[in-house]
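User: Show me an example of a complex going from sequences to structure tokens.

Assistant: Sure. Here are the input components:
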Amino acid sequence: MNKDLTDFLNELSEKKANSILRITKEVSPEYEVPAILQALENRKMTPVVIFENIKNLKGEKSKLPLIINLFGHRERIALAINSTMDQVSLDYAKKEKPVTSKTVNKEEAQVKQVIQTGENVDLYELPVVTHHEMDLGPYLTAASAWVKDPETGWTNCAIIRIMADGPDKLVVNFNAARHTNYIVNKYKERGIDKVPMVLMIGHHPAFYMGSQTKILTNEPDIIGGIIGEPAELVPSETWGSDFMVPAQAELVIECEMSTKQVDIEAPFGEYTGYYGGQRINPVAKVTAITRKKDAYYLDIMPGHADHFLIDSPMIEAYLYNRIKEVVPGTKNVYMPVSGSARLHAYIQVKKSNDAEPKTVIASALSSDYRLKHVIVVDEDVNIYDDEEVLWAVATRSQWDKDLLIIPGIMGTRLDPSANGITTTKGGIDATMPCGENAYPKRISIPREVMDRIDLDSYL
Amino acid sequence: MAKIYYVKCPECDKKYYIDNILLEQGKEDIKMKCPYCKKAFIKKREDVMNNQDQINS
């Protein structure tokens, strides 16, 4: 059986005992959950937090405990795929290969232990969180939305923001540049009003990481590559084997998204640290909710590490694979929190000629619509350290020759400095020129002296 | 940079902003919903475009 969220929590408890905080006091999902998480962050604490006594949207005690900040530390993302913090995106890139999914029967599928369909579905039984002051309402933030391409038959998975706007009503947002949008447009072109959509909420983090692949393919197969075995799927309640759902998920919501009916959605506090403005978006009607008997309800805290890290290592892996095809000396890619883990990338190269860094910049900027700024550095610069990267910019770049600027390119409308989806991207070549004696030597203290100094003996 | 259009809720008087996409529907009457008091209301597209709520605040 595929590992599930409980398996991961057990492993985390064994290996990092203090990384899970269980809160038994009664908590409201309206602002209180985010406030507690923010207060923890203010104390530099980043545990997974489980709210065992959380209210649902009816104001009653939720049957499902709420879990948040699962992805809130790079160490946990690394643990999910047996990697380390500085290798996680490279290891992900190696595993990002298709493995055909496996169908299991209903009895083997934990997600079928409780089934609600038709008039019995009620989103208000869930502890859906309202995160920020100006958010229009409670949002599903950890829903991996699965949509099937009517042309290729491939399933696309993407975490998108979804507003809970009634017991069986959702309002769904996705950016124009997202694969989800391209697929929904295919349904529109075919005159199909109801787009089948499956929302997976809660699973082993590695399963989530696989579903966040940036490769345009049948994404459940990539999940198999990441978890190291076929992803287990089971027929949905609404469409049977025409649309399969993840069998060992905590919770699955099946819905039909309209290509015609829209409603008001947002403001919503986004990863950029700003609210996305109010807009209209497609309405989806929930047809079934299925779950484990003792399921957790998973939430991702928007605009914080929990939100950044469920995507950035996967974008790093995608960029690494794409850029390496063009510049084989590419060593590593990191998307720092200073760019909301989407807008900036630090790329480390061992270059073989002086034109390669700009090739790296152009290749990276065209590979992800959100990525806006790239800094290319040499192998001696630690890309996980903002100060070192900015030191390289300070001492290894001249802006009249080392900048590459690309105006009028597709970006994200969530960046308030952009003009809608049109933005200007750019990169800095902060590498030294090629050639052994082409640049001054970086200062250092003799290695053997550093090695023999035992600091404690001097204190 | 895209222009930001703030609107003022006629019910609670609080201000928030909309995505420009809301103005690009080709409709003269724009339906909105206040994130603070959750009341729905309608504003004239032209008034929003002219930033009436900014000027009058």
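The lines above are the inputs; the final block is the predicted structure for all two components together. Residues 49 and 57 of chain B are 15 Å apart (CA to CA).
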